[in-house]
Write a structure and sequence with these properties.
The protein has 5 helices and 4 strands; from the N terminus they run H-H-E-E-H-H-E-E-H. It has 171 residues and is an alpha+beta fold. The protein has one domain. Strands 1-2-3-4 form a 4-stranded antiparallel β-sheet. A hairpin with a 4-residue loop joins strand 1 and strand 2. Helix 2 packs across helix 4 and helix 4 packs antiparallel against helix 5.
Length: 171
């Protein structure tokens, strides 16, 4: 009995924490890919369905990065952004392994990781990222995005919050 407690407090606890954080990333990835499959099956490129007075479901293909950055660059950007996504994913897994007890930090990294992999999967399968969430006010439309982008954005906000809290604790 005592030896199992030692194992639970040693590397096994770190592995369990890593599994939790990777599980959250996997959840974001699965939700992202599931919603994209639904959109690809139900919409043609450019289709739009109004849901509320400020939100549409659309089908848009983003060949670039955030806000279609480098979308018209001729095709090399697909592999460039895929490579960056893979390298970032490896780094984030290492960060999760290195800091499993930092809950807010690890949650943020998990959300970003799941989103990054979701968009990498799109680039590998389609050559573009499928976006479908279109929020607008009057004639102004925020660039369409997807579940992966939402995970990345929420994760980034949580990273900022984690840093603010860390700095405050240090005072």
């Amino acid at each position: 009995m005592a030896s199992s407690k030692k194992i639970g407090k040693g590397g096994s606890g770190k592995s369990q924490s890593l599994a939790l954080w990777l599980g959250i990333a996997l959840l974001v990835l699965v939700l992202d890919q599931f919603t994209k499959v639904l959109v690809l099956g139900a919409f043609q490129l450019g289709d739009s369905t109004p849901i509320t007075s400020f939100f549409n479901l659309v089908r848009v293909h983003n060949h670039g990065a955030a806000f279609s950055f480098l979308a018209g660059a001729g095709g090399w950007q697909r592999w460039f952004f895929t490579g960056i996504g893979v390298a970032a994913a490896v780094f984030m897994v290492w960060m999760l392994w290195s800091h499993p007890g930092q809950k807010l930090f690890s949650l943020a990294i998990s959300l970003i990781l799941g989103g990054a992999i979701g968009n990498v999967v799109d680039r590998l399968l389609h050559g573009y990222v499928v976006d479908f969430l279109d929020f607008y006010w009057g004639s102004w439309h925020f660039p369409a995005f997807n579940v992966a982008d939402a995970g990345i954005s929420v994760g980034a906000a949580l990273l900022i919050l984690d840093e603010i809290l860390r700095v405050r604790r240090g005072r």
